[in-house]
Amino acid sequence: MSFSFPPEFSTFTALDFNPSDYANAILSGEPYPTPADTKPDHVLSKFNLDPPAREDLSEAISKLTYNIDDVTKQIKYLVAQHHEDLLSQAASSNELSGSLTSIRANIDELDNSLEKLQSRVHKPYHSLQSHVARLQYLQQASDILRRTSRFVTLARRLQIQITELEDERPITEYHKPQEQNASKHAVLDVNQELRDDRERVLAKAARSLAELATCLDEPLVQPTVEVVLSEHSGQHGAKLDQTTLRSVRAVTNHIPFIEESRTKVIGEMENLLYSGLTSRDSAALASSLQIAYNLRILPELVQDLVSDLTKGLDDIVHNAFDVSKLSKDALTKDTGYISQTSSTYKSRIRTEPTNVTAAQWASTLWGKLEIMLEGLTECCTKVYLLEKVLTIKRDVVTQTFFLEEAMKSLDNQPSRIFWTAMARTLEKHIRDTVKSSTFLQQTLGSGYPKLIRLFHAFFTKIAPHSDTMYTQTTQSPETVLIINALSNLESLYLSRSTLKMNEAISQAFSGGFRSPPSATEGLNLARVIANELDAGKFDPLLARSLAKNVLPIVNSVLMRIDALMIRDRSAFTLTGTAASSQLISNAQLTTCLYQCWSMLERLKTEQSDAVLKIIQPSLQEMRKSCDNLLEPIQTSIRREISAIISKLHRINLGKTADIGTSLTSASFYIRDLAEKLTFIKTEVLSKVVSIAQFTVKTFLLHASIAKPLSESGKLQLANDMTELEFALNAFLADSSQGRHNGGVESIGDEYTALRAMRYSRTSYSRIITEKEIRPLLFLDNEQLKSEALTNGLRPVLVLHHILVRSTVPLPHALHGWQEAEYVRWLDEHSEEEALALIEGGLDHWEKVSEGEDREGKMYADLARTVLRESV
């Protein structure tokens, strides 16, 4: 039973209760502070509080006595009140003493049992611990003896293998020429067999050396007694005593021989490796890599080999672009200069050539570049040979590919590492060269196509040994990487090309408004652009760059022509016998642009599709600008030509010619037309095919509706057609070059129709036999519906001629139009609309005539037959 003090006695049960303070508090009539209210001295000092004042000691003692008596009374009162509880607690304490006695007896028995267990476990444990330690030492000694035995066996086997190697000749001696009296093939077979045997012995010795190194360096773990105890007790972090066979005296005697043998095998392996790379012998290279794999140094060997090859690139490229070496080589070749200066003094090395020695320097530079590319070819061939052998070759025992083993120390495949290093080296040296030497900058910048051709030869040489390809349609990423490394030189070349084309533009437009460019300037400008494109046509990447370079040039030409174009009304009016200066200026600009476009348009048959894809939008824009410039002038010219040809209807072609009258002279409108074409050619435009086409088309339409038309009228029209052909030939002929290339034949279908209209009966039989175009004017009525005889003629022309022979009115007569208005309507509408108009006229005539005109009905049926066949 537990006893708890009332709350009023908590002050006396506090640990920090001080009777003196309590007595002083009572005597002073102040409450004694509770433990929660009690504050330390430093707290009182913090708030500047002074301790309570102390009263007189006698008074305090009297108060204390009084309080003690009071406490005594209270204790007596409490004892009297709780005497039963106190008696029960006293009885319980007696019972507890008996329980404590039994517990003490049990503890004594437990101590006796513990002593017995210690005597039975502790001593056997220490005995077992010593036996376990001895067993571990025995196991370690057994392992050391086993490894030592294995080591000695391998060392003796290595001695035998090294002895075999010393008895044979080195591998490099098997390639030396043999005696003359020996059979060539027999000697080669013997050498190959001996070489194979030696390579096998080297591979075995390499494997023995690798196993010996493993035996020597593999640690021997020696668990101690503390390790065993820590494992049983569950503790971790115990250290192990590690040693190797190098601490065994029986082993250390063989270490010098092993190191010497390893050095010898590695030397033989390196000789075999470099011999295989130099002679491109895949078998020798594979054997050397097998030896390196057996030595377990294959990744390091391949890494060092690739590093040596890539470092060699820097030396090769540096020798080609080194200005000081270039100067020495140029002076060495210039024997005249050396002999002249040797007797005087030795001048300092020049970094730039003079005007006299510039050609010698350039020749030396290109020679050094050819040597550089030969060195790059040799290095590239070695890298690809190494990668090929690594890819194919694998270990016979583990079946591990050598390339997988080599990639443990390489970031990428050897070929890619080589290409990246080559591109980086070329870019660095070219950039430094362009900055440091003006001569190299000018020579390589202007001769960039020649440098690209040298790299083409380089790509061709390495193609059989690698998977690279560089053609017009396919470029390997490696080749593109190398070409991009020459971007500094390409930029110089493109700048020169742009400057050359800009100079041609400036020269063409140097006259300004007073002397605008003509056809000659347009041809010269197009010739310069075409020459620049042709210069890089052999290289797909250079061709694309040049094509992109042409785009701003074409835009510049269009902007300059647009700035010089005159937009006054007088510039598009063709009246009288003389053209205005504004019209002549615009015509020259149009001719210049047209000639430039027509020559550049021929590039479609010369350049690749990639280049055409780049320049095609510019050519289309040039053609569009040319059409926009030409349209107002052509409209004025067409108006004048149409007015002249419409005078045909003033001639009476239906009269019968008198006997003896000659029809050899041309009509007056043809003479006017010929004069107008000559005037247009000399004053306005020349060799514009569209004008010739419009002239023939308009003439044929007017001639087909000329009514009435007699036989003499047909002969007159045939004669006029001949004169028209002569006039068009003169208009389209290229008189500036002294030849008549093209001519009226170049206008196409219109010329075919003209020839079909103008043949006479005397030549009809010859036309039939030669299967040429048939004359429409002299065909019989039944022949008019034959497609074979009217080949090359529009159905509208045939229908017009049928209606001219009949009494059926022509469409323009039916609608009350003038001939010129009807021809203009036909020019503005499609062929289907024209046929529909003629068919509507036939329907109207049939309704009006009601079948009374039989002759007209026959021609109407013939016209409907032609209409059905033309659909």
UniProtKB/TrEMBL annotation:
Annotated Gene Ontology cellular component terms: Golgi membrane; Golgi transport complex
GO biological process terms, semicolon-separated: intra-Golgi vesicle-mediated transport
Subcellular location, record wording: Golgi apparatus membrane
Location of the Conserved oligomeric Golgi complex subunit 5 N-terminal domain: 12-158
Annotated Conserved oligomeric Golgi complex subunit 5 helical domain residues: 245-459
Membrane disposition: Peripheral membrane protein
A Pfam family the protein falls into: COG5_C
UniProt KW keywords: Golgi apparatus, Membrane
Origin superkingdom: Eukaryota
Protein name: Conserved oligomeric Golgi complex subunit 5
